[in-house]
Automatic annotation (TrEMBL):
Has a glutathione-disulfide oxidoreductase activity in the presence of NADPH and glutathione reductase. Reduces low molecular weight disulfides and proteins. The chain crosses the membrane at residues 12-29. Residues 11-69 form the Glutaredoxin domain. Belongs to the glutaredoxin family. PROSITE patterns: GLUTAREDOXIN_1, GLUTAREDOXIN_2. This is Glutaredoxin.
């Protein structure tokens, strides 16, 4: 997806195949129109180590917007319900 708004920050999602929460996170990001890089940690064990070091967590998905750790799917959904996800993803300016 290369159609992200100009203010959008780079989004990375660490995921595995067959992970329901990864699927839900992917759907939510796509619904938001966010361009994101998906890193399949089940295919690259070194990336699993990177994910754990960056997030401090051992579960997938783990989503980052720039250097900010947004968390897993439940965290994304909570941010969305609170009206904070768009700003975290760089889709809108806080308070704007």
């Amino acid at each position: 997806m290369d159609d992200a708004p100009g203010d959008a920050v780079p989004v990375v999602m660490y995921a595995t195949g067959g992970c329901v929460f990864c699927l839900l996170a992917r759907r939510l990001l796509k619904k938001k129109g966010v361009a994101f890089q998906e890193i399949r940690v089940d295919r690259d064990p070194e990336q699993w180590d990177v994910m754990e070091a960056r997030s401090g967590r051992h579960t997938v998905p783990q989503v980052f917007a720039g250097e900010r750790h947004l968390g897993g799917y439940s965290d994304l959904a909570a941010l969305d319900r609170a009206g904070e996800l768009d700003a975290a993803l760089g889709l809108s300016r806080p308070g704007g």
